[in-house]
Amino acid sequence: MTRRVSIFGATGSIGQNTIDLIGRDAAAYDVVALTGGNNIAQLAADAIRLRADVAVTAHDRCLNDLRDALQGTGVAAAAGEAALLEAAERPADWVMSAIVGAAGLAPGFRALRQGATLALANKESLVTAGPLLMAEAVAHGATILPVDSEHSAVFQALVGEDMAAVERIIITASGGGLRDMPLAELRHATVAQAGAHPNWDMGQRITIDSASMFNKAMELIETREFFGIAPDRIEAVIHPQSIIHALVGFSDGALMAHLGPPDMRHAIGYALHWPDRRDLPVARLDLAQIGKLEFQTPCETRYPALRIARNVMETRGKAGAVFNAAKEIALDGFISGRIGFMDMTAVVDATLDVMSREFRLNEAMNTLEEVLAVDHLTRMAAQAQIEQMEQH
Ligand code: NDP
User: Fold this and answer.
1) DSSP letters of 274-318?
2) What is the pTM of this model?
3) How many angstroms is it from 147 CA to the middle of ligand 1?
4) Pocket lining: 199 vs ligand 1, CB cutoff 6 Å
């Protein structure tokens, strides 16, 4: 039987890896919707090759190009936010959520409402709206499967285990592209330096977030929300080789580690075939050749994002949405050269402080609209922080 699949963020790094896996066995899948943003040529080529029902670009201004590229192919073209939501409502068995940023939130919610299995790469969904998202899945009998490699690793280590016996979850961090740069020089790090990852080949934003460890901060929060484990039982450890992705510690002292090559097709493939395991085209590890695996405690002076994540995990409520929106604006500021690498933390800290005077950060949010309103207000506050920094 063919499975109906949709891929949100199909033109990105995760989306292309997903298409690689699906394209290897195209007859097994009925592709419902593929979505992208600016990369119309890629979106159209994949939609034609995989015979998708519809291809959607997030940007209205790209619709004519998409229509031209799809003319006569039988693939429908659509554009804009409403079209993304409509695509998420099209019945599908499995939906990949791989749009980058908070823009990925609403389509994921829609997919859950139609009871689909949501393969969740979009970190922002759990960070900004974890409790709501998990509740939405339960309410509609939908399943969320983690795609972030660390959470997929934890998920796999937990198969057949009782959460009551879990003492701690440890997620690993490579340390990113600036791991060996002296602390004093970090403030001068460039976008090119921060955007070069030693082990993983990923999109620019997540690669820079790896260097600042905002990515690990997001993953700590995701761990808290997805697995429902107390913040003081979640740890991050630097592991430069990126071979172990996560470990789960049990009450009998056992630590179950998940090892795999740094290739996102493993976690994507696991979510695609879950609960089965199928052959995947990823390299097999040669442990003797790897030789040694190293671990270090991350220094919070170097990686202040981890300290912020602890506060966000304790506070919950609106704190995750504020943290994520402030981080996205700070990252934009760094990429566009408006602020320095270490200023990103200052922007996030200051924005959390400003927003804590707007409303109680630990207050729960009950609707997606409320999440998006907090997101919007926070973005304006974070922009104001960057403007203030530019003036000094
Ligand atoms: P990319 O930047 O490579 O791709 C992002 C995708 O989202 C592209 O298809 C892009 O379209 C689309 N997009 C961008 N802006 C919008 C918007 N406003 N509305 C709708 N679509 C948009 O990102 P990644 O694939 O690296 O990451 C995707 C998500 O997965 C992120 O949340 C990331 O944190 C997470 N993730 C990524 C991992 C990785 O290895 N890359 C690992 C784990 C999680 P276009 O390119 O056509 O403009």
Assistant:
1) TTS------PPP-HHHH-----BPPPTTT-HHHHHHHHHHHH-TT
2) 0.96
3) 13
4) no
Contacts of residue 158, defined as CB under 8 A and 6 or more positions apart, other chains included, come to 166, 227, 248
Pocket test for ligand 1, best of 35, 56, 99 (most atoms within 8 A of CB): 99
Residue 267 domain-assigned (yes or no): no
Q: Which domain holds residue 388?
A: 317-392
Q: Please count the structural domains in the chain.
A: 3
Verify that 380 and 239 share a domain, yes or no: no
User: 3-state DSSP helix/strand/coil percent for the chain, to nearest 5?
Assistant: 50, 15, 35
Per-residue pLDDT of the chain (392 residues; tens, 9 = 90+): 799 999 999 999 999 999 999 999 999 999 999 999 999 999 999 999 999 999 999 999 999 999 999 999 999 999 999 999 999 999 999 999 999 988 999 999 999 999 999 999 999 999 999 999 999 999 999 999 999 999 999 999 999 999 999 999 999 999 988 999 999 999 999 999 999 988 878 888 999 999 999 999 999 999 999 999 999 999 999 999 999 999 999 999 999 999 999 999 999 999 999 999 999 999 999 999 999 999 999 999 999 999 999 999 999 999 999 999 999 999 999 999 999 999 999 999 999 999 999 999 999 999 999 999 999 999 999 999 999 999 98
How many angstroms does the Cα of residue 107 sit away from the middle of ligand 1? 13
- Ligand 1 near 174 CB (within 6 A): no
Distance 287 CA to ligand 1 centre (A): 32
Cα–Cα nearest to 140, from 158, 118, 156? 118
Long-range CB contact pairs, 330-335, < 8 A, 24+: 330/382, 330/386, 331/205, 331/208, 331/209, 331/214, 333/386, 334/191, 334/194, 334/208, 335/191, 335/204, 335/205, 335/208
DSSP 125: H
- List CB contacts of 346: < 8 A, sequence separation 6 or more: 385, 389
Residue nearest to atom 43 of ligand 1 (CA): 148
| Cα–Cα distance for residue pair 300/279, rounded to 1 Å | 40
In-domain check, residue 276 = no
- Is the domain of 153 the same as that of 294? yes
Residue 348 sits in the same domain as residue 362: yes
| Chain mean position to CA 41 | 24
Q: Whose CA is nearest to atom 27 of ligand 1?
A: 100
